[in-house]
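Quick question: who can interpret this fold?

. . .
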Amino acid sequence: MTDVSLDALLGEVSTHNPDEVRDDGDSVLYRGYTERDSRRWTVTRRAPGMREQPLRHISKHSPTGFAWGYAGSGPAELARCLLIDALGDAALCPTCLGRRRIVYTGSGETDSIPAPPGEAGMSCYACDAGYGPLVERAYQAFKFAVVGRWPIDEPWAITQTEVLSWLREHQGARVEQ
């Protein structure tokens, strides 16, 4: 596997003022809001040219879903899912390619490969539910720096470009490919 910088993988990314709600039209737009008189948290994503849809909830910390404005399990879940969505395939574990299962080849140079579809294999030792170290080492910091600071009862918006800019600036991230 070759070590590739996040810059090389994702290309140039510009930064924006984080206090402004913006939609540059060229990036996925993530929005969050609470419904009036309830504690129902709604988070959506809209890719360019597509309709708005719910952000996929990949449960790890909070089976009840997303939240923001404090440093708990709901904001951790949201931070992790925003990073996974923004990174796309780059979020996947480089060992099992997101399949969560591997097989040992005994080839010496490469001892394990992703388990082919339909083959049982064994649990991947290198990932957390199919996602690699780039997500796992960054999402708690993203929660504290960004998600946990959004006002709890107010709507927010952030673009994929901004999520990736934060990742580059604050993590010095490198990914394997």
